[in-house]
Amino acid sequence: MNEAIAASGRRVQRVSRLTRILESEKVLATALLGPGVIILLVFIAYPFVMALWYSLTSIRVGDAGQFVGLANFSKAIQDTIFQQAFKNTVFYTFWATIFKLALGMWLALLLNRHFRFKRIVRASMLLPFIIPTVLSAFAWRWMFDPTFSVMNWALYHGGLITDRLPFLSSGDWAMWCAVVVNTWRGMPFFAITLLAGLQTISPDLHEAAALDGANAWHRFWHVTWPLLLPVTLVVVVFSVIQTFSDFQLIYVLTGGGPANSTHLIATYAYQIGVGSGLLGEGAALSLFMFPVLFAVVWVQLRYLKRMDNA
Amino acid sequence: MLIERKWKKWIYFYVPMAVFIVFTLFPFYWMAVTAFRPDNELYATWRQPNAAPLWTLQPTLEHVIGLLKTTAFPQWLWNTMAIAIVSTGISLVCGTFAGYALARLRFRGSEFLGTAIFITYLVPQTLLFIPLADIIRDMQLGNTPWALMLTYPTFLIPFCTWLLMGYFKTIPRELEECARIDGATRFGAMVRIIFPVAIPGILSAGIFAFTLSWNEFIYALVFMASAEQKTVPVGVVSELIRGDIFFWGQLMAGALLGSVPVAIVYSFFVEYYVTGLTGSVKG
Amino acid sequence: MANVSIRRLNKKYDNGFHAVKDVNLEIRDKEFLVLVGPSGCGKTTTLRMVAGLEEISSGEIRIGDTVVNDLPPMDRDIAMVFQNYALYPHKTVFANMAFGLQMRGYTKEEIRKRVHEAAEILGIQALLERKPRQLSGGQRQRVAVGRAIVRHPQVFLFDEPLSNLDAKLRVQMRVELKRLHERLETTAIYVTHDQVEAMTLGSRVVVMKDGFVQQLGEPLELYSRPANKFVAGFIGSPAMNFVDVSISGDGRWAETQGLRVQVPERLHAHGGKRVTLGVRPEALRVVNGADASSFATEVDVVEPLGNEILLNFRAGGVPMVARVDPGVRVKAHESIRFAPDPERLHFFDPQSEAAL
To answer: Which of A136, A150, A158, C41 has CA 20 to 30 A from B151's CA?
Structure first.
């Protein structure tokens, strides 16, 4: 089976048995995919199943609890804090995504020109995205601090306010502040990705449109935007998934307060599951994220398939 | 006409650009100023008449020194760096192998596996942290760096696989075919020919994974209990607030010093990072 | 003995596409065999199966005395030159050429010797330390050929190696490849879609279409005795002129509107049938007087090429081309008279397209 053609005077390869076995596509694929798949199975698939199981029991720290069916879920639905958290998460995701998209797109259009220091500007624009969220969120918290806020100082000395703005001390204000910080953080991601998309649009199209009489806004709306739609969609989906399941930002900015009014699903699940030790209920809370995420992903996969077939 | 053009440029470009730049970078400036400002200036309230928060005339290193000496910050830096390097390494190896297999080899179930790996990318950590904490404890890895070194790859591997799969697809098949005719085995052709050619893609995945690893918070928060084992994000959040009092000077010093390593590594690989970022979206 | 034997070779893809259908080829030792045909005819797939880059659906391939169906490429003692050269971008020219020898465990000394030998044959000694991106297209192609030569394989495989070169370079490289083959005397299988390359390079040529072998033979045989209408129209440029004609009852004349030619004796039995007549552009002579087989027509477009003139016209209801001496003086829309060479008429069955 494995005789190589060995004419006189030619050397025959000395290849170990192991490498010969790996000649087969199937075997090689298994060997290559093995390590990654194992890690994902052990640390994602298995815990996921466990999370499902926990959510159906009354398990808590130190007490295995018993099967309670959907009791955790119905408790969550009736929990006013959870209702607020769910609303907050939707509010937060919706507004932050819109702002990130709009500002990111604007920034991408600006960066698409040629100007001095472009490389440095582009590199530094990414810093909010690179720096650990927790650390920059702290900087923002300091900027919003009730007593020492630099923004209050600026607005006061600019004559725009007389009393301080309650940035993080009022539930509504705090949610908007969170939206601002999330936008600040996520805008570079949109900008850089949309920029790459912009660069694939041939300038010929803009020139033809300009000759046809379109002004800048029309050119954007009729040429740029439609051609960017695929990239935009993918970026939005990735961003929605990240933002909907966000934890770090609110945890640092408000901790969920004041009075549990700024919780997101993730932070509330943490508070119940780890803070109070009610693992079963915590798991149920975090599972509420899953249907939304799943729907978003499903929409994207459907759209992508349609793009592929078109 | 020329004059009109010029002010148009100012309004439509320079001004918005400047606003964006200030908006983006001001928090970092603020971090830096706070870190080097003495306490008496720091705690001047916003309405105080002689408050000048935007700069300081008496920069001081007391916060930085305090941070390095009285907290485990240096230890956190070391932990975070080690964990980032190891988990990035593991993820790159697994991701490169898996990306190659999915891009190049034909076998049943390759499409299913590709989609499955993509789906795991979307399962958020905030969903899994509760049962994972139990698993980590059962494996007796709680409060050790290995808890994170093994769990970080769960969100790094799917990303690396996805990115590298797209990258491998752009490498012409003929290179491998030629290598195999030249006498290399499949494995040999992959390692000696394809991987060297894919180095830019691997670097992109690597730098992106490295920054993701630094940014991770919730697993580190839940799995690491003792102060010496914490990572920088967790340490800064949990250890620098004593009682109800925020030591802002040290906090901002910690935030600043905690950001610097990532920023430095990033600055060497900006182009690769951007390629990784855009590649992950184009897929 | 480096003959290659392909028996009843088939390739069917998973989606049902039957790319190679029952191909039988016996390639002799030291022969230069060309597989030619339009895109999608199966020639490249066949080559890749010989190389071991595609799995065989059914049939057998032997190299020498060994059945190689299940042998991986590295064990088949073959070398291949790709259309896009496939040079390893991160290695120097020397390293590119040395790679195959390294894989087989040759000593450093031997490698150096062989690489320099091949480099000398191809005239690329000066390029050995450069990287592929620093080379021109023609130079890259030579390196690709050099990489194949150093291994002294039993069979060379070529996959459209000249397609990416500009026209002038292509002509030059064609001559060099032929010279190389004569010097090295190694069996070669060469795939191309260009019939000129096929005719000039091949000791024998295989014309393929839709996965089937249409004809196998020496170049001139394909030219003067094509087995079917497809081969007749594929070989030769400008292509053969085809027109539908009816054969008279006695089988001696074939005619259609305005056109009447003599039918060769061996085909007199086909009286009364409708057949397809084929005449090559170079088989049409300009005549002055009306003789039995001549026909008159009006010239449409004149294409002067310098060494000859191509005349486009209509006859028998179809567009035709004739190749004439540069001395012929005629302008567009003038009338002219042609007579086909009676020795060079081809007749084809209208349904099966086989030569009669």
So the answer is: A136
Report whether pLDDT(A205) > 90: no
CA distance C118 to C97: 9
> Above pLDDT 70, what percent of chain A?
92
List, as one string, the DSSP characters of A245-273.
Answer: T--HHHHHHTTT-STT-S--HHHHHHIII
Report the pLDDT value the prediction gives residue C193, as an integer from 0 to 100: 93
The whole-angstrom separation of Cα C263 and Cα C253 is: 5
Structure tokens at C105: 């465990």
ipTM value, please give it: 0.86
Half-sphere exposure of B154 (CA within 13 A, CB side): 27
pLDDT tens track for C297-352: 899 999 999 999 999 999 888 999 999 998 888 888 998 889 888 889 999 998 98
Mean pLDDT of the A177-195 span = 92
The amino acid that residue A61 corresponds to is V
Q: Is the pLDDT of residue B138 over 60?
A: yes
- Cβ(B30)–Cβ(A150) below 8 Å: yes
Best to test chain A binding among B123, B223, B270 (most A CBs inside 10 Å): B123
Task: Confirm if A230 and A307 have CB atoms less than 8 A apart.
Answer: yes
Does C80 touch chain B if contact means CB atoms closer than 8 Å?
yes
Q: Are B265 and B80 in contact (CB under 8 A)?
A: no
For residues B76 and A131, what is the distance between their CA atoms, to the nearest angstrom? 16
Tell me whether residues C75 and A11 touch, CB distance under 8 A. no
Residue C129's closest CA among C154, C98, C101? C98
Quote the pLDDT of residue B11.
77
Tell me if A39 and B94 make a contact (CB, 8 A cut-off). Answer: yes
For residue range C243-300, what is the model confidence (pLDDT) as tens digits?
999 988 888 888 888 888 888 888 888 888 899 999 999 999 888 877 777 888 899 9
C51 touches chain B (CB under 8 A): yes
φ and ψ of C67, to 5 deg? -75, 120
DSSP B269: S
SS3 content of chain B, % helix, strand, coil (to 5): 75, 0, 20
* Per-residue pLDDT, C276: 92
Angle between helices A118-125 and B270-282 (to 10 degrees): 60
Closest partner residue to A1 (CB to CB) among C70, C76, C152 is: C70
Cβ contact, residue pair C52, B181, below 8 Å: yes
Contacts of B283 in chain A (CB under 8 A): 234
C-beta atoms surrounding B141 within 10 Å: 17
